[in-house]
Amino acid sequence: MVALSPIHKAIPFVRSHFTGIMGKKPWTFAWQVALEAVVLEACLSAAISSLFPKAGNDPFAGMPFWILLIGAILFAPIAETFLFQSIPIAIARQFGRTFQAQVVWSMVPFALFHVLQMGWSGAGPGLVGGFYLAFSYAVWKRKDPGKAFVVTAGIHLIHNAAAVLLQLVMP
Question: Average pLDDT of 5-16?
Answer without folding.
Answer: 74
